[in-house]
Each structure stands twice: as C-alpha cells, then as structure tokens.
Amino acid sequence: MLYDLIRSRVPEHISIYGQAEMVGPKLATYLSRHPEMEIKCLKNSKVSFRTTDDPENFESHAQLFYGQTLHAQRVVLGVK
User: Helix (H, G, I), strand (E, B), or coil: what is residue 28?
Assistant: First the structure.
C-alpha cells in the first residue's frame, strides 16, 4: 500500500524490499531444511478475527491487508 509513496520519495538507486520478497523465500528455505515442522502445522484450520473496536470498521480496514472479505467479532475486555 505504501510502496508507491515510499518509492516516489526514495532515490532510484536505492532498492526497496517488501516483506513478501524477504520473508516468503526465507520461510520456504527454513521449512525445506526442517521437515519436522510439517507435523506442527495445522491443516484445515479456521481463522477468526476479534476486535475491541467496531467490527464493521475493523473489517473494512483489515480487508485491505488480508486481501479478502472477513468477519470480526467484538470483544469486551474486562478488568479484574
């Protein structure tokens, strides 16, 4: 989201790398070196989102980053 803004302010001779370009390949390399991690990975799991904010507000912003429609549940944190 911010790449174009940052790119417009940084000289062309400077490379800019995003998380996907760095983390994805490193994770793939790590997993290929550690096959024992396969048994620790959940299969057919579900993702749930909870927020202390308004769920609709959270959903509209989170979908920009998550890349798909999602539903959030509001939670109230209590103080003991």
Answer: helix
- The residues near 69 (Cβ < 8 Å, ≥ 6 apart) are 59, 63
Q: Residue 38 carries which side chain, given as an amino acid letter?
A: E
Beta strand residue intervals within 1-80, DSSP E? 49-51, 72-74
Task: Kindly report the pTM of this predicted structure.
Answer: 0.45
Dihedral pair phi/psi, residue 53, rounded to 5°: -85, 180
DSSP SS3 for 3: helix
Would you write out the chain's pLDDT as a tens digit for each of its 80 residues?
678 889 899 999 999 988 778 888 898 899 899 989 888 887 888 888 999 989 999 999 888 888 888 999 999 988 76
